[in-house]
């Protein structure tokens, strides 16, 4: 498995997690549906806890150094143990707590491709005990009393194993890393992601929403349909800008020097700058 693109990001995230005093907080978006966020530093992606009549389901579980703290928090939030864990994709800032949670009795569920990748290298999930024991292809649905959770596979998007979770009755969507709200997205080309697939997946999620939908992004603050549309429009335009320059015969160095994404400087963050986003677009447009 190629890991060069994502490994520095994960290792830096681990360093942040180990050096910072990170805690977690939960906010109830709708009855029984909680958004879980890290506070005090980078604690992985946004998570969620679903408290049903008889079972508790969680979406993603941060990084290995934070697993014990996270489990204590979500157990208190849910009022009981976590029965099932849904992994939205393979990256270690989303599956890092798998082994620790599994050791406490949580059943881990993920797309087929996540298990395949973790069979090659399970370190990001806390070791071999963090492998998903239930996998799915196109999707799976949880029925938790009044809460229905539809897990939908989104192919060739952020990775090749992405899933979004839609709660139709509650009108809530967890996008996994198919949405980085207000910041440039990381599209992991070495793990099966593509720019075109990422945009297609975003549009599919967006089509499920209405003006009242609460959207939990993989990274960034809670948003809504209008907020997600702004992020989609940015990426569509960024792709068009870079594609036009490539079609004019510009080399990669010439495109980077021109900095066609300068107007999106506000989307820069620690891992993805305009330069790195441009490099991702060039590579995807010239190899997909």
Can you lay out the helices and strands and say which pair or pack?
Blueprint: H1 7-19, E1 23-30, E2 33-39, E3 47-51, E4 56-59, H2 67-78, E5 84-86, H3 92-95, H4 98-103, E6 107-111, H5 112-120, E7 134-136, E8 139-144, E9 147-154, E10 162-167, E11 172-174, H6 195-208, E12 214-216, H7 225-247, H8 252-258, H9 274-287
Parallel strand pairs: 4-5, 5-6, 6-7, 11-12
Antiparallel strand pairs: 1-2, 2-3, 3-4, 8-9, 9-10, 10-11
Helix pairs in contact: 6-7, 7-9
Could you describe the 3D structure shown?
By secondary structure, this protein is of the alpha/beta class. The chain has a single domain, classed as 4-Layer Sandwich (Metallo-beta-lactamase, Chain A), CATH 3.60.15. The protein has 9 helices and 12 strands. Strands 1-2-3-4-5-6-7 form a 7-stranded mixed β-sheet. The longest helix has 23 residues, at 225-247.
Q: Main attributes?
A:
288 residues; alpha/beta; Metallo-beta-lactamase, Chain A; 9 helices; 35% helix
